[in-house]
Structures are given as C-alpha cells and as structure tokens.
Specification:
The protein has one domain: Gcn5-related N-acetyltransferase (GNAT) (Aminopeptidase, 3-Layer(aba) Sandwich). It is globular and about 40 Å long. It has a seven-stranded mixed beta sheet with strand order 1-2-3-4-5-7-6, with helices on both faces. It contains five helices and seven strands. By secondary structure, the protein is α+β, with helices and mostly antiparallel strands. 24% of the residues lie in helices and 22% in strands. It holds the Pfam family Acetyltransf_1. It comes from Hoeflea phototrophica (strain DSM 17068 / NCIMB 14078 / DFL-43). This is Acetyltransferase (GNAT) family. One of its GO terms (molecular function) is acyltransferase activity, transferring groups other than amino-acyl groups.
C-alpha cells in the first residue's frame, strides 16, 4: 500500500477528526502540546483544543499533514514554522533553538508531533509522513527542518513516540544538532 499524504485543511478536517477519534488523540491533546503555552493548554477542555486545531486547519498554512491508505486516514504529522509551536522555543525545553537561531525565522521549521492509528503503529508509516513533511516544509520556504525525537521507546507501538523516533529521522538525513537531555536529541536537516 502507498501512503497518500495531504495537508490538514478545512476540506480534510473530517478525516483528521476521524483519525484522532472522540478522545482527540493522546488523551485529548488535539496536538496542542507544543502549540499552546502550558497554562493555557491545561485550562482548555478537549472541545476547545479541538476547535483551535480546526481553526488552524482553516488557515492558509496548514498545521500538518494527514496520511491516507486506501482513502482512510492512518497518520498525522505536525509540521510548521517554529513560531507556530511556542512551547518548542522556551529556554527550558530540549527542543529550544540553537544559539543564534531566531524561533520566529520563517525559514526554520519544526516537525513536532506524529499520531498513527493504533492498528497501524509499528508498520513504518512515520517514514512516509516524515518524507512528506520535509517536502511540504521545503515547498513553503523552509531552509532548515528540526525535530526533537526520542532515541528509544519501550516498543514500536508506544504512544511516547508522538515526537518520532530518532532512527527514522537519521534515515531521512537528519543529524544531531544538540542533546540537552539523554535520549532526546535536537535533530536538524539543512535544506538549502
């Protein structure tokens, strides 16, 4: 089967909602973990987080991509300019920008989250989603794409892989730029 990857837009929103399910993926997160400041995220309910992601899907620059197999949504990757994921840019996070990098530079993008349908985890879909995410970022002017994946998960179907697996990024040509916490490297790929 081949993976058909499309932007998360108002048109594809019903597919993303179906993929995330009634809980909103990852315990009602609706991919808000890096998009919202912690206090705001904690104050919002599941429905409010869903509404914010739906609103983002209606913007000219989509918040991520949805992977389909045989017309069914099976995976998601959040890929945006760094400025769209403010939690990524705080001084205390392992994903904070490298010294001298401006997190508001529209040429520096982040691949911050993955979500794979439970029945499809461990099948390697993240490779196709990552390839599409890099192509999407490139098409929208990215010079650099960064990620802060996990080096080792307990198993290939672990929900902890929402940040992606370091080995997947290595295979896609990313290299370690910094490691501020063991097992959580900041990886980057220079595109131009």
């Amino acid at each position: 089967m081949s993976l058909d990857v499309r932007p998360a837009t108002s048109e594809t929103w019903p597919a993303l909602k179906a993929l995330f399910g009634p809980q909103g993926a990852c315990y009602g997160c609706w991919c808000s973990y890096f998009r919202l400041e912690p206090k705001l995220r904690e104050a919002l309910g599941r429905d409010e987080k869903e509404a914010l992601l739906k609103q983002a899907a209606g913007e000219p620059l989509p918040p991520g991509l949805i992977g389909f197999e045989n017309g069914e949504p099976v995976g998601w990757v959040q890929v945006t300019p760094r400025a769209h994921v403010p939690r990524w840019n705080t001084r205390r996070t392992v994903s904070r920008p490298l010294e001298g990098d401006d997190p508001h530079d529209p040429g520096i993008w982040a691949i911050s989250c993955f979500f794979i349908a439970k029945r499809k985890r461990g099948e390697g879909l993240s490779h196709g989603l990552l390839e599409a995410a890099v192509a999407h970022a490139t098409a929208h002017g990215a010079r650099v794409v960064e990620a802060c994946p996990i080096v080792q998960a307990k198993h290939s179907k672990s929900v902890g892989l929402f940040v992606g697996a370091a080995s997947t990024f290595e295979r896609a040509g990313f290299s370690v730029a910094a490691e501020r916490k063991a097992g959580r490297p900041l990886m980057r790929k220079v595109l131009v």
